[in-house]
Amino acid sequence: MKKIILSLTFILFTAAAFSQKLMPVKIDSLVTVSLPANFQKKDTLGQQIYSGNGAFGFMIVLRAKNPANNTPLNKEKDLNKVLKTYIDGIQKQSGEGSVMNPRDTIIGKLEAKVFTLRVDNTGSTGEPIQLRQFILLYTQEATYTFQYYYEEQRKDLVKDELKTFTSSIKLAPDLKRNDQYISNAKGLSTPVKIGIYGGGPLIILIIIFAMIRRKKKQSA
Question: What is the DSSP letter of 67?
């Protein structure tokens, strides 16, 4: 665990001296997104973390492979339940975070969840209010988390960069809706639910949040 934290500290807080132009990066054979040219990539417990400093915000893309015995989700409501569980966990582990504007979106042929996490530690630490724009994308094989992190006071400045980042997510044509849920599935057993809801993506995000808060306190 110590090695994981040290690795995440390195990738999260390597400061960029200049603004970075975003460039397409293949997360895997199915997903592509644009990141700063000096992005960092780390493998942690079989999960890939891509991160980089933009002109106004910090970008993180996490790809976490789902359990090999993952049973396909049955219906759209099962997908929504999985994504809601992730969102609830992210909010809980962020401390003073509150979820704003959760909504559905479509990327390629797949459904995804978009929301903003607002973290206000001004009363306890004096830190600027932080905003974290999330896009969650679930497939049977892997879960993808896209995050754009910035201070609220920069919200007017980040608009173009944020739009470039979020709109750059591209999926391979062979990724279709039944890669998320299928109508003739038998539903999830308890062990599979544990594998999805308590899996790697949330654990890594918890560590990331902790490191961001720690760095803020040290630089205050």
Answer: P
Q: In the chain, how many domains are there?
A: 1
Mean pLDDT by 10 residues, the chain (220 residues): 39 43 95 95 89 94 87 89 91 85 94 94 77 95 95 92 96 92 53 38 52 46
> Is residue 167 within 8 Å of residue 55, measured between CB atoms?
no
Give the list of residues 6+ apart from residue 148 with CB closer than 8 angstroms, or none: 57, 58, 59, 132, 133, 158, 161, 162, 165, 166
Element (H, E) at 209: helix 200-219
CA-CA-CA-CA dihedral for 75, 78, 79, 82, to nearest 10:
-170
> Contact, 197 vs 85, CB < 8 A?
yes
- Helices 2-12 and 200-219: crossing angle in degrees, nearest 10, is 60
CATH number for the domain harbouring residue 189: 3.40.1000.10
Tokens 């980089």 correspond to 52
Model confidence pTM above 0.85? no
